[in-house]
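Need the bound structure for iron/sulfur cluster, inputs here:
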Amino acid sequence: MKLLLHVCCGPCTVYPLKKLREADITVSGYFYNPNIHPYREFRRRLNSLQDFAKETQFNLEVDSKYGLTDYLRQVVFHEQERCKICYAMRLEKTAEQASLSGADAFSTTLLYSKYQNHRAIITIGESMAKKYGVEFYYEDFRTGWQEGIDESIAMDLYRQPYCGCIYSEQERYDKKLQKKLRKERKQQS
Ligand code: SF4
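Answer from helper R.:
Posting the output first, comments after.
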């Protein structure tokens, strides 16, 4: 199977890539993340991912356009729903790319993160699969959460301190908001 894997950063790619390769799937990566701000953080994550790709002979396609404006145009006035919008932006592009490149399926490293809305990612992935006529490959990569962390530390990959967007950067410092989000995530998992 030829699979296009949407990748958000190096550390989140380590475990899913390992699992997919073990399953004999031919994996290519696709970096498209207009949600990562500010620009220096975007570059830092991308540079680290590219170093990782080189080291692991991981074929990686990169959309290096900094997407702050595109992202904000989609989420402003919909901040409460922003993660779903953000998933849809990224998975739509990946599904389209997978279809154009003749891949059998697409997936995402977002399925590795314990901090994302796992169910929403599946729903959106499946709906993009229908739209672009290419399978959404699902696997619960969260099972390798600690393994991925340990490996990324051992490889000295840059580990980001917040999810990506400027809203999540703000939440990093807002204790009350952090508490509320933890509660919501517990309900969603
Ligand atoms: S918190 Fe993360 S998933 Fe949610 S909108 Fe921001 S970058 Fe996207």
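Comments: The longest helix spans residues 82-101. The pocket of iron/sulfur cluster is lined by residues 35, 82-83, 86, 163-165, 167-168 (CB under 6 Å).
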